[in-house]
Amino acid sequence: METGGSSESSVEPKKGKSKTRRKPKESVLKQKSPAEFFAENKNIAGFDNPGKCLYTTVRELVENALDSAESISELPVVEITIEEIERSEFNSMIGLVDRERVDEALYDDYESAKAREKRLAKEARNQEIQAKNALLGKKTKEPTPVKGIKGRGEASFYRVTCKDNGKGMPHDDIPNMFGRVLSGTKYGLKQTRGKFGLGAKMALIWSKMSTGLPIEISSSMKAQNYISFCRLDIDIHRNIPHIHLHEKQENKERWHGAKIQVVIEGNWTTYRAKILHYMRQMAVITPYAQLLFKFISDASDKNMTIKFARRTDSMPPVPLETKHHPSSVDLLLIKRLIAETSKQNLLQFLQHEFVNIGKSYAERLIGEMGPDFSPKMAVKSLTDQQIVRIHQLFRQAKFDDPSGKCLSPAGEYNLRLGIIKELHPDLVSTYSGSAQVFEGHPFIVEAGVSIGGKDVKLGINIFRFANRIPLLFEQGADVVTRTAIKRINWSSYKISQWQDKIGVFVSVVSTKIPFKGTGKEYIGDDISEIASAVKSAIQQCCTQLKTKIVKKIQAREQQERKRRLSWWTTKWH
Ligand SMILES: Nc1ncnc2c1ncn2[C@@H]1O[C@H](COP(=O)(O)OP(=O)(O)OP(=O)(O)O)[C@@H](O)[C@H]1O
């Protein structure tokens, strides 16, 4: 309420106090665009710090590339390159002149003469101790680096490029696909890696925040005689693309696919291991893809090229779009379906917009709704109350479970192949569960358990996948970790958590993965259907392994008996 001349403004300052009391600011109503919201809260999309931003950018681009190739049943060929950009090169890219430092003491990494003297003395003392110990033949610990001048505090910049052989994008859609937060083609009820219409835009927002540079997209669809090229950035306040260049170029080679390039701040040193780990796990779950990873730097010892070769041509089937299951819809969704349906009457609407409602079941449901409802009534004329009644009945009535036919799990063969190819274990077992349901959404759990192998640590090593995306963060809270650590009695399968190198691989696919957050980092442990399916899949693998382990033990014992027998025989004859 407006109070006109507010009493607060007339308050006299107290005696002896020099400060005048501040007038509280009126709160002003403001709106934020989705792009602004995500720019201010980029951590919820997995863009926490420069290192994690580099990792998530790679991830988002690779996952889009795989989604795109798989959508046209093309065996994926994906090339991802991270190129380190020197500060001077970066400055010249943005037209900034390199400047020599004039006032050194102004900088964060400035070291005074006294501090330098102290540091050098400490380094010399450390070296002396090392040399003495070496003379005495004592084992020496790696000396802890002496705190010296701070890291230059300078940002590192990287050009990230991802090229695929996928479907490409229609020329006119490209600006909105990359320059408007919450826009995409994967919102339907379908198993895809992408879901939110956010990832590529977050890479662009981060590039805009850290380097100010635009994103570049080249794309061509099958049999298209031109390549669409688009350079754009995003108007954060209005959440619309800001196009720098959008043109058609010649496509002599009839290439199809997409090439996306962004220049961002990052931190390769701290996130190198995570990025390589991600690529390796992606190779496990997609052995039918050819993945090429390159890191390019002026320091040639940092350069690397890793090829994850394709090991099979057998690709999981393309996931199918499905309709909503009546048990999974809420009021808003029912209203949206009514607004969008092409069906005229209630009977047709129920039959055609949902799975598992046949004609006679739809008639029974309508009968149950009450006297205000009839099969022939116009669906668009339903009142709000009538829609609430439909929703209530959907929640109480019994429906057949949705089928898992629309899903595309990796398949036991691919999972086993991926594990063997990347880990070379001594023993491996895999299991593929049948389709199950949570809150009306179908899901399938597949699992693998391995013993031994290359680069596998002692104890339980968890590998998690959701809609064929490797999940690397928030491991402790994830349903797979919790199940493997707390709910499996490993010793009852003759597997030792302390002496064996155990690999636990669990892949969940669904039309709706219940991720916690838009960063797609883990699946919570609160959905009992998923938790019990994960447990049962791991147990199935362990049961198979137990048989193999017992056979191995028996074979070893038999060999030992034979050896002893032959020893005795030679001794007494
Ligand atoms: N490499 C690509 N090939 C073809 N289309 C692409 C490619 N990359 C992005 N797209 C299109 O751009 C859209 C937006 O991509 P974006 O990464 O922002 O979101 P998403 O993949 O739909 O969802 P999520 O935010 O969950 O990753 C995608 O839905 C897709 O249609």
Automatic annotation (TrEMBL):
- Per its UniProt entry, what is the enzyme's top EC class, as one word? isomerase
What's the EC number here? 5.6.2.2
The organism's place on the tree of life at top rank: Eukaryota
Identify the residues that the record assigns to the DNA topoisomerase VI subunit B transducer domain, covering every copy.
402-561
- Localization per Swiss-Prot or TrEMBL: Nucleus
InterPro entries for this protein: HATPase_C_sf (IPR036890), Ribosomal_Su5_D2-typ_SF (IPR020568), Ribosomal_uS13-like_H2TH (IPR010979), Ribsml_uS5_D2-typ_fold_subgr (IPR014721), TopoVI_B (IPR005734), TopoVI_B_transducer (IPR015320)
The segment annotated Disordered runs over 1-33
Report biased composition (Polar residues) as residue ranges.
1-10
Tell me, which GO biological process terms does this entry list?
A: DNA topological change
Which one Pfam family would you cite for this protein?
Topo-VIb_trans
- Keywords of this protein's UniProt record, alphabetized? ATP-binding, DNA-binding, Isomerase, Nucleotide-binding, Nucleus, Topoisomerase
Q: Name one GO cellular component term.
A: DNA topoisomerase type II (double strand cut, ATP-hydrolyzing) complex
Binding of ATP occurs at N64, D164, T185, K186, G194, K195, F196, G197, L198, G199, A200, K201, K520
Gene Ontology molecular function, alphabetical: ATP binding; DNA binding; DNA topoisomerase type II (double strand cut, ATP-hydrolyzing) activity; identical protein binding
| Chemical reaction(s) catalysed | ATP-dependent breakage, passage and rejoining of double-stranded DNA
The UniProt entry's sequence similarity note says: Belongs to the TOP6B family.
What does the record give as the function of this protein?
Component of the DNA topoisomerase VI involved in chromatin organization and progression of endoreduplication cycles. Relaxes both positive and negative superturns and exhibits a strong decatenase activity. The B subunit binds ATP.
Database matches in PANTHER family = DNA TOPOISOMERASE 6 SUBUNIT B (PTHR48444)
Q: How does it assemble?
A: Homodimer. Heterotetramer of two TOP6A and two TOP6B subunits.
The molecule here is called: DNA topoisomerase 6 subunit B
Look up and give the organism this protein is from: Punica granatum (Pomegranate)
Please spell out the taxonomic lineage of the organism that makes this protein.
Eukaryota, Viridiplantae, Streptophyta, Embryophyta, Tracheophyta
State the gene name recorded for this protein: TOP6B
